[in-house]
Amino acid sequence: MKTFLKGGRCPIRDILSRLGDKWSLLILTTLHANGVMRFSDIQKSIGDISQRMLTVTLRSLEADGLITRKVYAQIPPKVEYAFLRPVRD
After folding, report:
1. What's 22's domain CATH number?
2. How many other CB atoms are found less than 10 A from the CB of residue 37?
3. CA nearest 38: which of 64, 18, 67?
4. Would 49 be classed as within a structural domain?
5. What angle do CA 72, 75, 81 make, to 5 degrees?
6. Is 1 contained in some domain?
7. Average model confidence (pLDDT) across the chain
8. How many separate domains does the chain show?
9. What is the pLDDT of residues 38-67, one digit of tens each?
């Protein structure tokens, strides 16, 4: 019998805990709907997210491989974020 108890290894719980927070789903939905966006555009689109929380959540989503971050070497620095679409065969 398969169980989904909190103490055991459960991939569904891992996914829900990662995406179940308030900001991750909003950021992923925003990037999916709008395509490539800059930090300030994401913040304006969501509205009530603080700069710190947006930074932390973007870093976490990037580390998990759910979004991409591209930095352009220019002055002022330009950074773009995009929803990472799954590769299809």
Report:
1. 1.10.10.10
2. 20
3. 67
4. yes
5. 35
6. no
7. 85
8. 1
9. 999 999 999 999 999 999 999 999 998 899
Task: Judge whether 4 lies within some domain.
Answer: no
Provide the H-helix boundaries in the chain: 11-19, 22-34, 39-46, 51-63
Dihedral over Cα of 46, 21, 50, 58: its sign: negative
| Residue ranges making up the domain that contains 78 | 11-83
* DSSP at 84: -
65 token code pair? 């491989």
Structure tokens at 80: 């773009």
- Rounded Cα gap, residues 26 and 46, in angstroms: 7
The one-letter amino acid at 84 = L
28-40 pLDDT per residue, tens: 999 999 999 999 9
Instruction: Classify residue 41: in a domain, yes or no.
Output: yes
- The kind and range of the H/E element at 22 are helix 22-34
Q: What is the pTM of this model?
A: 0.79
Map residue 67 onto helix, strand or coil.
strand
